[in-house]
Amino acid sequence: MAYFKNIKVNNFRNFNYFNIDFSQKCNVFYGSNGCGKTNLLEAISIFSKGRGLRKDKIFNFIKKNEEYFSNDTNFIDKGIEYEINTFSEIKNNKFQKKIKLNGEISSEVNNKIQSLITFLIYVPENERLFLASPTTRRNLFDHFIFSYSLNYNSLLNAYKKNIIERNIILKNNLTDKSWLDKIEEDIAKYGIEIYEQRIKQSDIFEKNLEHISEYLTIPFKVNIQINDSFFKPRITIDEYKHILRKNREIDKIIGGSKIGPHKSDTIFYVNQNYPASQLSTGQQKTLVLLLYFAQCYYLVNYCKKKPILLLDEINSHLDDYNIQLLLKIVEHFEIQVFMTGTKKDLFSFLSTNTNFYNISIK
After folding, report:
1. How wide is the angle at C-alpha 284 spanned by C-alphas 282 and 285, nearest 5°?
2. CA–CA–CA angle 331, 336, 337 (5° rounding)
3. Residues 207 and 192 in one domain
4. Count of the separate structural domains present in the chain
5. Is residue 248 within 8 Å of 258, Cβ to Cβ?
6. Which of 15, 92, 107, 291 sits most deeply, having the most CB atoms within 10 A of its CB?
């Protein structure tokens, strides 16, 4: 089992100093709005690659009027204890986040931490997943893909970098044809790989929802479709490049690229052709929780990973079925779970193995 044993935060968000030990199973932070519950989840989430559950600027992690933050934890994996420290550092007048593992810092250390810690993060915006913008759905897909494909973020960044570089060339009317051709070839290569990864993730959702139907009654059958007027299965790099060349003039005007995975959407249907966006609010919450259940099932049973679940403000629209579904997620897998809410009694359905923490403003 993989789990956080504790955390010590220094100068982080609204905390001067805060020290807390965790259960290796379920942990609930409760308290009034603004007390720091989500900040603690965020402090946990930045012990791995990236900028945490809110994807905020590093400068904003630092408590007002302080110069840095420094958070520490002891992380247990397969009986081995690791000391992890994440902190801010100024380099070239820019704040950066650094991570140490057992006092060491290097690219190898970063890779080791990524192999140790896998997060699945629920934020309140996920509740409106099927009504939100395509960006919200793409981001959730990408978050789930990264949970088992550690190089996926590098793929996304390489794709975005080439889109930006191509746009600069087009706007500046540069005439190095071979350079532009090479960039468009990279865009096509990376774009096709991103499409393929997202299609694979759709299949993971659908297949693993079928698996978990063995453990609970699922109220609807889910069908997921990629909505993209450009993409088609088995598209070649040459076909992709041809469209990019054809669109150079319009892309020069609009900026970026008119086509590509950054423009696609994912549409969810239930019972074959009923849009998930038309479900009741409670049913939409059910479907979102089922997606997290399916992803946990896939990670634990097929990837042999033990994800850490961070569930922020998870309580809304929890009818009897959703309570049982959330409880099943918590109890079915040997994984560590963190939740937040305003009142302790909102979590009365949880077992005695849960640790409760009343967070007051610091």
Report:
1. 65
2. 75
3. yes
4. 2
5. no
6. 291
Please state, in angstroms and rounded to a whole number, the distance separating the CA atoms of residues 169 and 44.
Answer: 41
Q: Percent helix, strand and coil across the chain, each rounded to 5?
A: 45, 25, 35
195: left (phi over 0), alpha (psi -120 to 50) or beta: alpha
Terminal CA-to-CA distance of the chain, rounded, Å? 32
For residue 123, is it within any domain? no
pLDDT digits (tens, 9 = 90+) for 135-162: 999 999 999 999 999 899 999 999 999 9
Please report the pLDDT score of residue 167 as a whole number: 94
What CATH number did the domain enclosing 44 receive? Answer: 3.40.50.300
Q: Would the pTM of this model clear 0.85, i.e. be above it?
A: yes
Secondary structure letter of residue 25 according to DSSP: S
On whether residue 48 sits in a domain, the answer given is: yes
What letter represents residue 54's amino acid?
R
Report angle CA 88, 89, 90 to the nearest 5 degrees: 135
- Residue length of the chain: 362
Identify the domain boundary among 305, 329, 353.
305
Which contiguous run of DSSP H or E holds residue 122? strand 119-122
Contact 273, 224 (CB under 8 A): no
Burial of 299 (0-12, 13-18, 19+ CB in 10 A): buried
Domain extent, residue 246, equals 128-305
How high is the pLDDT of residue 176? 78
18 bridge partner residues: 9
Query: Are 38 and 52 contacting, i.e. CB atoms less than 8 angstroms apart?
Result: no
